[in-house]
Design goal:
The protein has six helices and eight strands. It has an eight-stranded mixed sheet with strand order 1-2-3-4-5-6-8-7, with helices on both faces.
């Protein structure tokens, strides 16, 4: 595939594309906010760190074999970047971890679930992985609902397994783990929807 692809994955209201250098201000709007990043494994980031983050995403695009697909999530109607979603493939490419973060101005509109479903499709139908997992802080009920809404099952609660920062306070945090198998995903699809909606062949 090309190092930078203008559109990688389309859903009903969104498109998920490769990061570009000019995405730093949109990323900073959510990555620089404590309320937006409270349950995430990083503190609010200053602009210089956001620029480095975008540079790492650009570098990911030319790694071969590629294992990290972190994509900018944009509205089809306006082209505005509203967050990011990712699939991180295992070394053998047979499993993946799903992740997502959205600007709080766009919460409660179903965008996270829509983008996550798109990445499940990409992972299972595009990359043919066997299993996709995800995790969230025990208190992050919104993220848990996304995982359950897209058909992932809860595999367990790890009590106080992470010493990290949440809402500017350091401490031990508990983690919910979710996953879905390719077989389970395929069984949930309506007839005729067993091909990925991608703009390029991976």
């Amino acid at each position: 595939m090309n190092p930078v692809s203008p559109v990688v994955l389309e859903t009903e209201r969104l498109y998920l594309r490769e990061f570009v250098k000019d995405d730093s201000p949109a990323v900073f709007e959510y990555a620089g906010s404590l309320e937006n990043t409270g349950f995430l494994p990083f503190s609010p980031e200053p602009m210089d760190e956001v620029v480095k983050y975008v540079e790492r995403r650009l570098a990911d695009q030319i790694v071969s074999p590629r294992r990290h697909y972190e994509l900018a999530v944009c509205l089809k109607d306006t082209d505005e970047m509203i967050g990011a979603a990712s699939l991180k493939l295992s070394e053998d490419g047979r499993q993946a971890e799903l992740g997502y973060v959205f600007n709080m101005r766009f919460w409660h509109k179903g965008y996270a679930s829509e983008a996550a479903r798109g990445l499940l499709r990409l992972g299972f139908l595009g990359f043919e992985v066997n299993r996709i997992s995800a995790w969230c802080d025990e208190e992050n009920t919104a993220s848990r609902r996304v995982m359950e809404r897209i058909g992932m099952r809860r595999e367990g609660l790890f009590k106080k397994d992470r010493y990290t920062r949440a809402f500017a306070k350091d401490g031990w945090r508990s983690t919910y783990y979710y996953a879905i198998l390719q077989k389970e995903y395929l069984m949930s699809l309506p007839d005729g929807e067993h091909s990925p909606t991608v703009s390029e062949s991976f």
